[in-house]
Amino acid sequence: MIERFVECLPGRSTITCMTAQDDPHQKIIAAAKKRFTHYGYTKTTMAELAVDCDMSPGNLYRYFAGKLDIAEAICREASVQTADDLQRILTSSGRSASERLHDFLFMDLRETFHKLEEDPKIVEMAQIVTAERPEFHNEGLAREREVLCRIVELGNLSGEFDVPDPEFAAEMIQAATLKFSYPQLFTRLPLAKLERELEGVYQIVVAGLKAGCAACVDPEKVAVEA
Prior knowledge:
Blueprint: H1 2-7, H2 24-39, H3 46-52, H4 57-63, H5 67-87, H6 97-118, H7 121-132, H8 134-158, H9 166-181, H10 183-186, H11 191-211, H12 219-225
């Protein structure tokens, strides 16, 4: 999610609104990306964004109820793009399910880590959106969890894994590795140490998937079936 927000920021040194001129929503989002990155979320006002987009504050409020709504829209675009990128791991040729899982986890860590280091002001925005709009954060996690579930299912189909409940397994893998998806929100460890930790977690997870997780089923489903 976060890395995609940064990647689509052209010309960070100026605050202008030159993209998507025919779409007011995209015009506002483009201006906000630049201003949030340059000045920070909390130091940006709706009045300043209105000036950047050459519109009145009243007109700006026609499209977004407040600054948080704009930040959420930016993060949603980024989250959807990240999920699309992760989907490509499913179609890469010559990769086992274990290797695809490794690709997924380490791509998420490395790309996000580097982007957050380059643009620390977006950590502030990400923290605010996550705290104020937890339902949005959960939507993004669900999109990524779908890819994890598919990786587990591919492992089952090939005989590499033996997992009776891929959806539950995907949820637990995500829970175990969430620290590495948004590293600077949780820790200040350098990338090398984070990679060392993630490799250890990955090895434990894959060993369990290959061993056959007969007991790795959602307890809520078991309770309903009982």
